[in-house]
Amino acid sequence: MKNKKVLIPVIILLLLIIMGIFYMIVNTLNIRSKMDVHLRENGVEVSEVKEMVVRYSFKNSLIFSNEWTISVEYYDEPGVNYFYNYKSGKIVFSGIGGGEIKKEKSEYKHLEDTE
Questions:
Q1: Is 44 exposed, middle or buried (0-12, 13-18, 19+ CB in 10 A)?
Q2: Dihedral of the CA atoms 29, 71, 110, 40 (nearest 10)?
Q3: Under a CB-based contact definition with an 8 Å cutoff, are residues 76 and 48 in contact?
Q4: How far apart are the first and last CA of the chain?
Q5: For the chain, which terminus, N or C, has the lower number of CB atoms within 10 Å?
Q6: pLDDT given at position 29
Q7: Domains of the chain, residue spans
Q8: DSSP-derived pairing of the beta strands 80-87 and 90-98
Q9: pLDDT at 111
Q10: Which residue numbers in the chain have pLDDT < 70?
Q11: pTM above threshold 0.90
């Protein structure tokens, strides 16, 4: 009898963890695909991208901020990261990081207008 009382919450917890992992994997792949489309629509070939990282922030979801962020580094600008957010089903450019501190904004090759 005791085993059943312990087993049911453990099974529920495991199912919640599995569902969470599945949610993360599916949404990461979906957002990555949408980011590929966004880049192509802005004249960027996927082959120009050195690295793309899609991240989920549970903390941000608690404060109703940007849950999903995307960081993109291009081969022609090593060390410079372009940041995007995924919100309301859209990819939105949010800024840049890294690179040379004294670099003028006009010198960045992949800037987009912020909304």
A1: middle
A2: 0
A3: yes
A4: 59
A5: N
A6: 93
A7: 2-107
A8: antiparallel
A9: 79
A10: 1-2, 59-65, 100-102, 114-115
A11: no
How far apart are alpha carbons 64 and 43 in whole angstroms? 32
d(CA 21, CA 92): 25
Sort 54 into a burial class: Cβ within 10 Å, 0-12 / 13-18 / 19+: buried
d(CA 58, CA 39): 26
Handedness of CA 107, 75, 29, 68 (dihedral sign): negative
Return d(Cα 111, Cα 95) in angstroms, integer: 8
CB 71 within 8 A of CB 52: yes
d(CA 16, CA 26): 15
Distance CA 49, CA 75 (A): 6
Query: In this structure, which amino acid lies at residue 15?
Result: L
Tally of CA atoms within 13 A in the half-sphere of 68 that contains its CB: 22
User: 67: helix, coil or strand?
Assistant: coil
